[in-house]
Design goal:
Radius of gyration: 16 Å
Low-confidence stretches: 1-11, 40-46
Shape: globular
Strand content: 5-15%
CATH topology: Lysozyme
Length: about 190
């Protein structure tokens, strides 16, 4: 997964590929020999105060879909957006090295379970990702455990009776909570 926002941390190298139809894809794990070029070398990530259109050009592009999903499923819009920022950097074409896809970085099997036909379609990704977040919130009762389940799997949250002792998940939960808190105070989701 692409981690594009974490104070005092680092993201891996980011690669870019432009398809013949003009679709641009960013990834941290490019497929071999498929025309990906270095886009951004590993460097410190921006602090929450640096969340803006320069660092995240699609930052508010999907707020309409986020608000609709928030109202539909009763999940805070800022929580949904925090997950999207942390998962893909608001890139609807993102693909992780593990195979997670789209804005909400949904794994193909999970997308199928959620009825998401095209995880690269922002509206479908946000709807499916929000439904999955809602399931985790209902199952575990807290934002932190829902995030742990979203990242590390609900079976692991149950197995360890809390946040699983996986380095990625232990970093993921506070990262997304920091973004969520920032959005609540500084950049609430709204449609003009």
């Amino acid at each position: 997964m692409l981690w594009l926002l974490l104070p005092m941390s680092h993201a891996g190298d980011i690669y870019i590929h432009e398809a013949p139809d003009g679709t641009i894809t960013f990834t941290d794990n490019p497929p071999a020999r498929q025309g990906y070029e270095m886009f951004l070398e590993e460097k410190p990530l921006p602090a929450p105060s640096k969340i803006n259109f320069a660092t995240f050009p699609l930052l508010d592009s999907f707020d309409e879909y986020i608000l609709a999903a928030s109202l539909r499923y009763g999940v805070d819009a800022e929580f949904i957006k925090a997950v999207a920022i942390g998962e893909s950097g608001m890139n609807p074409n993102a693909i992780s090295r593990a195979g997670a896809q789209g804005l909400m970085q949904i794994m193909p099997a999970t997308a199928t379970e959620l009825g998401v036909e095209d995880p690269f379609d922002a509206e479908q990704a946000i709807d499916g990702g929000t439904r999955y977040l809602k399931q985790q919130l209902e199952a575990f009762g807290s934002f932190e455990l829902a995030l742990a389940a979203y990242n590390g799997g609900p079976h692991n949250v149950r197995k360890y009776n809390g946040i699983p002792p996986f380095e990625e998940t232990e970093r993921y939960v506070p990262r997304i909570m920091t973004i969520y808190e920032y959005l609540n105070v500084e950049r609430p989701v709204r449609v003009e």
